[in-house]
Amino acid sequence: MPKVIIDNSIQEPTLIMNEKTLFLHQFSLDSTIVHLGASKVRYRIDINNSLKSGVIRVSPYFSEKIQIPTLPFDSYVSNKELFIGPVIGFIPSRYFYNNPQRLKERFTDYEHVKGLIYFFNKKNINFHKQVIHGYYYNSAEDVFTEGTFPLPSVLYTRVKLSKQEFVYFNHFLKGKLFNYTPSPITKDSLQKIIPLPSSRLRTHLPHTIKYNGGRSIKRMLTKYSGVYVKPVNLSRGRGIHYVCKKNTGYQVYDTNGKSAYLKNTKALTALFKRNKHKHLLVQQAIDTIFKGHRLDFRVYMQKNSEHVWQASAITGKVADKRVIVTNYPYRKNIVTGEEALSFYYSLPQSEASAKLKEAEVLCRELLILFERKKNFFLGDVAVDLAVDNKMKIWLLEVQVRYVADIKKPLPDDESIISKNILPTPFHYAKSLTEF
């Protein structure tokens, strides 16, 4: 593998090397093709025998639109052509695109990834010229610098891609993109993806049915002490209600902890008829109240550089008292998964560790099934789950565009969790290339 140095003094697309390097890599005597991301340009070759063997000085002037930044690159030679990289494209949400300093933690392990990592807004893609305007991480100055770049070698997206956008990128990247879902993942996706009652994973799903009037809630409450009524397509706890039997009627709680007593099923139907969200589901409520607080867990599942799903971190989300969801801003705090099992469930450390390992194995099985059945391109997701008072794990939801960059800080452990979660996708992205 040659060592490439971007040399700003070379004004034209030119490579400078000594004769030994030229013959070692079997370059043509006068020129060769240089690959950067999904683009390639022919570079002239000049010989300078004062250079060390294995060193290639590279002109930054890749094309009329693209200038290669002075960054630490890896390189390799294949079929007598030079490949420089990696080149990783990243699409954050609009908020983070406009506030790039909030993305800094993603680059804390840049020295082990190297290359050109740039982020951009979808509107800044020039499909015709095959260039993208955005900002790259300038490691020497620890800043983001504006520029125009070639299409990347691999794409990591935190926003939804249209079918047309996916087809475009997939054509050039040949499947090297992740966190693309051709259809949305909703709150009933787990039931759809694991349809067989005999499946081992199915035994870890709460009983869930479509809402069809108050009678569907009444029917579920003959089996369970409480149920959640949830909009299928909403996130962050919005629109969720908890319903339980009380005397001859029903007690209903909303996400703010406010409650109302409804005398009969007819009143229950009338309440949810006023709900502007048409598609609702009714789900068995898992008993997870410990020391007066509801708890659930979030498992941050990410593919590592060996393309294996791993739990980069597991957190316990603790709700305020008398609140039915653990989403921000309704939660009391976040703790590590081990702390949650130790303090709230009173498990010794060895049993807590074993339970977290069990959760990781279940999540891995689930995500492998998702990718196989739904043709999803995944690499960075969060799985929400609950652990009941009998220590059974219940899989609740898969989140592709989970909140990561602005998550609630963890006391004492915040830096550890951030370090594990945020840089990992770039390691996986690099592993999808040849570098």
Secondary-structure topology with pairs:
Elements: E1 3-6, E2 14-17, H1 19-24, E3 31-36, E4 39-47, E5 55-58, E6 74-78, E7 81-85, E8 87-91, H2 94-98, H3 110-113, E9 116-119, E10 125-126, E11 131-138, E12 143-150, E13 154-157, H4 163-173, E14 177-178, H5 189-193, E15 208-210, H6 214-220, E16 226-231, E17 241-246, E18 249-253, E19 259-262, H7 265-273, E20 280-284, E21 289-290, E22 293-303, E23 309-319, E24 331-336, H8 337-343, H9 349-374, E25 380-387, E26 393-399, H10 414-421, H11 424-431
Parallel strand pairs: 1-5, 2-4, 3-7, 8-9, 8-13, 13-14
Antiparallel strand pairs: 2-5, 3-4, 6-7, 9-11, 10-11, 11-12, 15-20, 16-17, 16-20, 17-18, 18-19, 21-22, 22-23, 22-25, 23-24, 25-26
Helix pairs in contact: 6-7, 8-9
In short:
This protein is of the alpha+beta class and 435 residues long.
The first-level CATH class name of the largest domain: Alpha Beta
Output the structural class.
alpha+beta
Number of continuous helical runs: 11
How do the strands of the widest beta sheet line up side by side?
1-5-2-4-3-7-6
Instruction: Give the CA-CA distance, first to last residue.
Output: 10 Å
InterPro entries: YheC/D
Protein name: YheC/D like ATP-grasp
What labels describe this entry?
single chain; 435 residues; Barwin-like endoglucanases; seven-stranded mixed sheet; 11 helices; 33% strand; elongated; YheC/D like ATP-grasp; YheC/D
